[in-house]
Amino acid sequence: MQKYRIIGNMTGNSMDAIDLVLTEFSGDVMTDICAYTKPYTRDMQIRMENLRRLAFNKTRTEIEALPEFQAIHDDYIKQIATGIDEMCAQNHIDKKSIDAIGFHGKTLDHNPLSKAKTENTEPYTLQIGSGQMLADLTDIPVVYDFRSDPLMNGFDGAPLVPPHNAHISATEGDGCYYNGGNTSNFALILSGQAIIGSDAGPFNEYTDNYIRTHSAESFDKDGHLGKQGTLNESLLQYIFDCGRHFYETALPKSGDPAYYNKDKIFRYVVDKKIKFADAVYTFEYAAAYIAVQALSLLPKDMPLPTRVILFGGGWKNPMVRESFEQILQGYGFVLAEHCEQFSDFLNRFTAPLTIKQSTLGDYMEARLFADLARYKLENRAWEIPEVVQAGQKIVCGRLVHPQKMRSRYDDCINRAAKGWQQEILTNQKK
């Protein structure tokens, strides 16, 4: 039985921290050896958010030509490499014992097939992050650019976590695995198999960004800010209206902060003179509300598990979790347009719901990319539900080995960035 020791890395859309986990794989048995988290500086968050705006809807060539791009990219990779070195040093890990790093990269733009079809555009996804540079800095092989392969084969490319949820179901059991990060996503795991996985919508997106803009805090630790507020029903309605096109799109679907109209919603808060605490609580309630609304779109003939297994830092906020539980129990506030829809959904459950925090949840997303790297090392297809159901097999990611450091790298942007279709045609003509 092949054994691996792999570091997984995830940088969320919120760019809140470097999250790392070193996991040992013995077949499909996973054991986390150590983990590491280091918050990004506010300056780095601002620079990356500015790059996101500048890179929106641009091709690889246009992004690489941006004056800010290379410096931000290189600082980003160097901070991850430093984090890996620090984690290994703190835990007395010999880097030579590590088989690979599973590196997600930083998503700056995302136009998946589920969205592109409705807008008659070409699908693409944009992650930055040179795997070769990270390999050279750490002296460890790197597997990266995971989302390009499914997208270039006619799928959304996100979320990628459902197969990993299925892998850990041997420990956690069947259920609805729900991730609360910057965007929320879920997977239904039945009989140890992922039958559907989908993004739901913004989760920490509104709350964290609003708090950073209006206070010295980075997020609402333990919900202490939200506890001071009350639900503003008009703001909740406006949030849903602003993202309605995405929220009402059929499952499965793939989301991105660009779809959620954050700036427009924040202007509404100012224009309506909504109190700070009320806005925070309403954003937290909206995270829970949108998570339930996505579940209500599950096909009516699809069996529903009676367990919800939570992972991701957003669920540690008691205001969000309590709101989620209240709505699922049928006594949370529901917009008039959803009363019948939510009621019909809740009536589909054949037994009372149980909701629990995953025992493997703190570094689920980082471990996901260690798991993906393991599959790449074994040249195994990643079992994304819609890919499996279409009868296809897709191996995700690129593998690079350490080389000598160089001044410039040609893999700073993933293969499926905007314009990848034309690049393929051009290369075929050569």
Structural overview:
The relative contact order is 0.17. The N and C termini lie far apart (44 Å). This protein has 430 residues and is α/β, with parallel strands linked by helices. The chain has 17 helices and 13 strands. It has a 6-stranded mixed β-sheet with strand order 3-2-1-4-7-13.
What characteristics describe this protein?
single chain; 430 residues; alpha/beta; 6-stranded mixed β-sheet
Layout of helices and strands:
Elements: E1 3-10, E2 17-26, E3 29-39, H1 42-55, H2 60-64, H3 69-90, E4 100-103, E5 106-111, H4 113-119, E6 124-128, H5 131-138, E7 142-144, H6 148-152, H7 162-172, E8 175-180, E9 183-190, E10 193-202, H8 205-214, H9 233-242, H10 244-247, H11 262-271, H12 276-295, E11 307-311, H13 318-328, H14 339-346, E12 354-357, H15 364-377, H16 385-389, E13 398-400, H17 420-429
Parallel strand pairs: 1-4, 4-7, 8-11, 11-12
Antiparallel strand pairs: 1-2, 2-3, 5-6, 7-13, 8-9, 9-10
Helix pairs in contact: 3-5, 8-12, 9-11, 9-12, 12-13
